[in-house]
Amino acid sequence: MDFRKTFDKIPEDFDKYRPRYQEEVFREIITLCELGSDKKVLEIGPGTGQATEPILKTGCDYTAIELGENFTSFMQDKFGSYNNFSIINADFEQYVFDDNIYDLVYSAATIQWIPEETAFLKTYRALKPGGYLAIFMTYSDETSLNINLRSEIDKVYKEHFRVKRRYNCKMEYKNALHYGFTNFKYKEWKSERILNAEEYISWISTSCEHITLEEPYKTNFYMGVRNAFMSAGNKMTVIDTIPLYLFQKPL
């Protein structure tokens, strides 16, 4: 099983239940890169396009590279009406890009699936001198404002959550500086979501491990999560942090 293709099984749910990114993230990238019709942009692994439309609307020459066939079709249906949109259904690790062609390469919660050396060397080579690499994602804190509820959910995980493979993708994003990038910038934004049991379950069901959860564990796991929510007033406040890492290829 190619764990990277897990999400491609549920494009509609992925698009519906994954949280969106704040406008400030895109404003920062667009302003720094001075995006417009004269700029070429590559998005790595767009999924269903949670981070796509604000970039497309700048009028830039936009290309996405997406491994999943279902995601690729979904993206084509969603954004195909934009005359500046194109998408490549291919594996970033294997695809051969021309050198020095993009003004911006960016990843929204995708690049960590790629081995570090491949990710940073290929993006560096594909960027024009002076071009930018932007990396961002969402980190969700379910514990700080829900200590008792999270404790009960952890018990449910311990008792019922059994999967054949665990998510173990990790990347030290600042290591891009070891591959020639410079001018590192970091910013982050925070927001809150209030979820009930069904909203919470719909959200976590789009993560790779939960997609692969099989019976009899699946039914018992989600029943346990619902029961934990009901005992806590059917409410969880999630604090989302969106960190943005920006790097530049030297002129």
Task: Please name the defining characteristics of this protein.
251 residues; alpha/beta; eight-stranded mixed β-sheet; 9 helices; 34% helix
Structure, explained:
Strands 1, 2, 3, 4, 5, 6, 7 and 8 form an 8-stranded mixed β-sheet that branches. Helix 6 (147-160) runs antiparallel to helix 9 (217-231). The protein has helices at 11-17, 23-33, 53-56, 69-79, 116-126, 147-160, 197-204, 208-211, 217-231; strands spanning 40-44, 61-66, 85-89, 102-108, 127-136, 139-141, 182-195, 236-248. The mean pLDDT is 96. The protein has 251 residues and is an alpha/beta fold.
Gyration radius over CA: 19 Å
The helix-strand sequence is: HHEHEHEEHEEHEHHHE
Mean of all residue-level pLDDT scores:
96
What gross morphology would you assign?
elongated
Topology (elements, then pairings):
Elements: H1 11-17, H2 23-33, E1 40-44, H3 53-56, E2 61-66, H4 69-79, E3 85-89, E4 102-108, H5 116-126, E5 127-136, E6 139-141, H6 147-160, E7 182-195, H7 197-204, H8 208-211, H9 217-231, E8 236-248
Parallel strand pairs: 1-2, 1-4, 2-3, 4-5
Antiparallel strand pairs: 5-8, 6-8, 7-8
Short description:
This protein has 251 residues and is an alpha/beta fold. It contains nine helices and eight strands.
